[in-house]
Amino acid sequence: MPISRPHATQDLELAKENMDEFGYCLLANVLSQAEVSAIRTRLSEQMEAEALLRKSTISRNKKQLVRFLVNKGKVFRDILFHPGFREVVDHVLGSEYLLSSFHTDQFWMPPPTNERKETLVKPGSITRAVHKGHHVIGEDNPRVISPAVVCNAMWMLDDFTEDNGATIFVPGSHLMGRQPDLELDKDADWVPAVGPAGTVAVFEGRTWHSTGLNVSDQARIGLSTNFCAPQFRQQENFQLGTSPEVLAEASEELLAILGFKPWQGYGHIENNIEWVARGQYALGELKPDQGI
To answer: pTM of the full predicted structure?
Structure first.
């Protein structure tokens, strides 16, 4: 029996329903072919330049990564504001959230207490290697699970196919209340998210996902973005790492998702509770005669 799964759509209401039911959706034609071409060109230039400078990042599975894209081209910053895409992110996270760079899951999110109100894992003791799988929660579909506090996107800059290693998901896994177990869940109902270049796969942080196996003779290029709820720490430190040139021309909306707009008391500097900026510091050590 075929596994029920989302299919690429331009219907945003259907996309939101897919997010609720499956934990991910596929948005069709978010990027035009011209936009795909411009992003690929800028990405290829950056990859070649970083390789020449011996600054390339190669992952353990031999993928070449280009990090901190906010500094590396306007085309990368522009995609963050596609309205249909952002409407789906809003559906998952609400009206305010932060850019957090690479896609991730919620392995670091403390699981809810059990029926005896016992804390299962101390928040500051969670690790990626240990706190996944059946042994953490002890059951599938527990009565209470953590909400989604992360929303990811995989932007397809090539056609994504099963043969070239399209991102794979387990539909509905976002409601299981745990992370996948590398051994016990390898035969779960993993399905590829396929689509032509310009499609975007949007998935929330609880959804089981992985990179498919590329058995073709061609590389596959994708661009990943990640947003997190404003209470949580971003993966990359945009307040320190974003270049002055980017900040000088940044809109308020970009500054907000980079973390320069405090939220509910988080991220402010002394009395600067609306916006913070480079070069702002809290008061230093003073004596009474210095305060006049």
So the answer is: 0.91
